[in-house]
Design goal:
The protein is α+β, with helices and mostly antiparallel strands and about 775 residues long. Helices cover about 55% and strands about 15% of the residues. The strands form three sheets. Strands 1, 2, 3, 4, 5, 6 and 7 form a seven-stranded antiparallel β-sheet that branches. Strands 8, 9, 10, 11, 12, 13 and 14 form a seven-stranded mixed β-sheet that branches. The chain has a five-stranded parallel β-sheet with strand order 16-15-17-18-19, sandwiched between helices. β2 and β3 (about 265) form a beta hairpin. α13 crosses α18 (about 595-605). It starts with a helix and ends with a helix.
């Protein structure tokens, strides 16, 4: 009976009016059962007993159907109409018309109508109920039931039990009302607490949003910590947490960014084992990917996810955090009780906090990236400023020597002195040209225009040339320079010999620069392996090289110099940087040599490395892969490749070469270079003049050296106009002679109709060899 009352009368899951209806049904069942007992004792007619039994059965069925959700509304009004109005006369007559007990029931039924009905239904049912009661009394007045045997005894007993029944019913109602009062008071208190909590949460949300969105980069994590801690306190949750996602080995994992759980602060640093992997097939993880907050029972998690929660936790409220379309992580609360309804109240607030966190995290990441970008920009700006200062020093120093020695040479009458001054001018010019070439090479590398030109060359001859040049500098500091070349290295190779020499010159020059007097420098060359049938670059390789053999060679330069720290090594091959900025002032140099060397080596399918001990010396080593040449050198002789026919006296005798340049000194230099070739040189200072002369006598010239940048008609336009003329001039060799030395400048010259390209300052060998190729060959 206790469980029955708790389920159908005291349960808060049922609406209030249904619980009152259930009380009415219970009272009716009890009273009908009482009447049935007295009719059985009195031996009344079987029809009376049967009617009461049917009444009990009907009331039990009504009690059952009343508590079905779809029958709630029907049950309320059915009870008022059937029980209070239609059943009243039946109960009245079966009890022998007991006036005293029916008067109590009359008051009781009126109270029920007022308790259950309201509005229009109260206005209809109350008059109906009063009319039924009045008619019942009138009928009983004309048709009394006093002819029953033992009527007096039955009436007394019925009055007694009727009073007990009504008393019990009224007692139940009073108890129910007391229970209802307590429940409503508890609900009211809960609502007040919730309102207070929501107010606190709203204030908390506003306060935290301001703090999170205004937090500096260094303060952000501490503000997150404060947010999660306060969230746990305000919601009265034993734990609040913020987890973030990371990719590890191509898999998505979740780990605690910060968690306040049962008084303990948890992060991935303090609990590295708490990192968990997402499973796309897991229902819990699917809910997180839906972007909406949800409440779930912890027991619904899989074993791995359950480890993330305290053993006491039963319910969790989670809200995913997305930054744009990226699933960053999630925020959540825990509860030790199965308080689904209570924790659901925090869904909206938690979602709001999640959105604020999303904005704050995105802002924080942007600020971090801006700071990094600013630091990098400042670092690059500082490096480039130092680089420009170094460049100014490196350019002004040889320029000072050139200008100073030129003035001294002009003033002196002593020819030996003049020769000495001119030698120093040449040395300073070579140094200045090397600096400019480094700058140009670095510019080409950064623009992606740097390329290698391949030719057949002798590996040992290149090493011999480098040794001769470097030995002279080593002798000035009494340094021992030693070259060691393994016998098994193939001598005849195919590649860019000039760039290989440039790398060697850079490394050995650095070794000599940073090695003191009487120091030692060892250059060691060894063969690592022969690579058979390696595919070469067919666009740049000569014909029939499809099935080529390659040699992987390692060259190391070891010195006994000042050495380098590990931190300096990390910056050694970067553009615009040296190991230490002070080395520029102490030792000179552009700081670009190693960066250029690294690019050259990598373009030769190799790599460069350095190892060093501070104060003891360094080892720079690089590997390159070069194709083994398959040419036949037996007929040409050992020195045939280095024979230069264009240097012979009178090589261009009686050949007419036009030099077109708007700068007088450039025309004079070209004329002086061609003097020993015995060529007929015509000097022209503009494109218009050159076009006029060629148009007047198109078959007269054997070659034209054409400057590109000239006022009026430039070299490109002049060449294009010349190519439109008829006769021999269509194939007349026209060679660009310009300071524009990038690959695209060479390509532009070819597209304009020129045959070749010479860069300024003019290299004598380069100029004469190209003229020889186009005039003689």
């Amino acid at each position: 009976m206790k469980s029955f009352i708790e389920k159908y009368i005291l349960s808060r899951e049922l609406p209030l009016n249904i619980r009152i209806v259930n009380i009415v049904y219970l009272v009716g069942i009890f009273m009908s059962f009482t009447s049935l007992v007295f009719n059985l004792i009195n031996g009344n007619h079987l029809s009376h007993q049967l009617s009461i039994a049917i009444s009990i059965l009907v009331l039990v069925l009504l009690l059952y159907f009343t508590n079905m959700k779809q029958a709630y509304t029907f049950a309320v009004y059915f009870t008022l109409i059937v029980f209070c109005d239609l059943l009243f006369p039946v109960l009245f007559f079966t009890t022998g018309g007991d006036m005293s007990s029916m008067e109590v029931y009359f008051i009781f039924s009126i109270a029920i109508v007022f308790m259950i009905a309201d509005g229009i239904m109260l206005k209809v049912l109350l008059p109906l109920h009063l009319t039924v009661i009045a008619l019942t009394y009138i009928v009983f007045y004309y048709y009394p039931m006093t002819e029953f045997p033992y009527y007096g005894l039955m009436r007394s007993a019925n009055q007694f039990f009727a009073l007990i029944t009504v008393g019990i019913s009224i007692g139940i109602i009073f108890l129910f009302q007391h229970k209802l009062y307590n429940e409503e008071k508890a609900e009211s208190d809960d609502r007040m607490r919730m309102l207070e909590t929501n107010s606190k949460l709203q204030q908390f949300t506003n306060r935290m949003s301001e703090k999170l969105l205004d937090a500096r980069v260094g303060e952000f994590r501490s503000v997150i910590k404060e947010t999660i801690h306060d969230l746990s306190q305000i919601t009265d949750s034993p734990a609040a947490f913020l987890w973030r996602n990371h990719m590890y080995d191509g898999e998505l994992y979740s780990e605690p960014y910060f968690e306040y759980s049962y008084g303990e602060e948890i992060t991935i640093e303090s609990h590295p084992e708490s990192r968990l992997k997402y499973d796309s097939n897991d229902e819990f993880h699917k809910l997180l990917f839906n972007r909406s907050p949800f409440v779930t029972m912890v027991r619904a998690f899989n074993d791995e996810d359950r480890l993330r929660y305290n053993s006491k936790t039963k319910v969790a409220l989670l809200s995913p955090i997305y930054i744009r379309d990226y699933f960053w992580g999630f925020i959540g609360l825990e509860s030790e009780k199965d308080e689904m309804d209570k924790i659901k109240e925090f869904k909206a607030i938690l979602q709001s906090i999640g959105l604020i966190l999303s904005s704050a995290i995105e802002r924080h990441d942007i600020m971090v990236n801006l700071i990094k970008a600013e630091d990098l920009a400042l670092k690059n700006s500082k490096a480039k400023s130092e680089f420009l200062a170094n460049m100014s020093h490196e350019i002004r120093t040889p320029m000072n020597a050139i200008i100073g020695m030129s003035n001294l040479a002009k003033k002196t009458e002593n020819y030996e002195k003049k020769d000495e001054y001119l030698e120093k001018i040449i040395d300073a010019s070579d140094y200045l040209l090397g600096t400019i070439n480094d700058i140009l090479d670095m510019s080409k590398i950064e623009a992606g225009k740097f390329s290698l030109s391949k030719t057949h060359f002798s590996f040992r001859s290149i090493m011999q040339k480098v040794m001769e040049v470097m030995q002279f500098k080593a002798d000035e500091k009494s340094q021992k320079l030693k070259f060691s070349i393994a016998d098994d290295i193939p001598d005849d190779l195919y590649g860019d010999d000039q760039r290989l020499g440039q790398v060697l010159n850079n490394l050995i020059s650095n070794a000599e620069k940073f090695t003191g007097v009487k120091g030692r420098i060892n250059v060691n060359c060894e063969l690592l392996r022969i690579i058979e049938n390696r595919d070469c670059d067919h666009d740049s390789a000569p014909a029939n090289h499809a099935n080529s053999r390659h040699a992987e060679i390692r060259i190391s330069v070891k010195d006994t110099g000042i050495g380098i720290t590990d931190e300096q090594i990390s910056r050694l091959f970067q553009s615009f940087e040296q190991a230490e900025s002070s080395t520029n002032r102490n030792f000179g140099g552009t700081g670009l040599g190693l960066a250029i060397s690294k690019s050259i080596v990598e373009m030769m399918n190799g790599s460069i490395h350095v190892s060093s001990t501070l104060g003891e010396g360094s080892v720079f080593a690089f590997t390159i892969v070069l194709e083994i040449s398959d040419r036949d050198t037996s007929a040409a002789g050992a020195d045939s490749e280095f024979y230069k026919p264009y240097l012979e006296q009178g090589v261009f005798k009686n050949k007419v070469i036009m030099v077109v340049d708007d700068i007088d000194v450039n025309r004079e230099i070209a004329e002086a270079i061609l003097e020993d070739t015995e060529a007929v040189v015509e000097l022209v200072e503009s494109g218009h003049e050159a076009l006029t002369l060629v148009t007047a006598n198109p078959d007269h010239y054997d070659a034209i050296l054409m400057d590109v940048q000239m006022p009026g008609m430039d070299g490109f336009e002049t060449t294009s106009m010349i190519r439109l003329l008829d006769g021999k001039v269509k194939t007349l060799p026209i060679i660009a002679m310009t300071a524009n030395a990038f690959q695209e400048d060479k390509e532009k010259a070819i597209m304009a109709g020129m045959n070749d390209h010479i860069s300024k300052p003019i290299d004598v060998d380069d100029m004469l060899s190209k003229l020889y190729e186009h005039i003689i060959d």
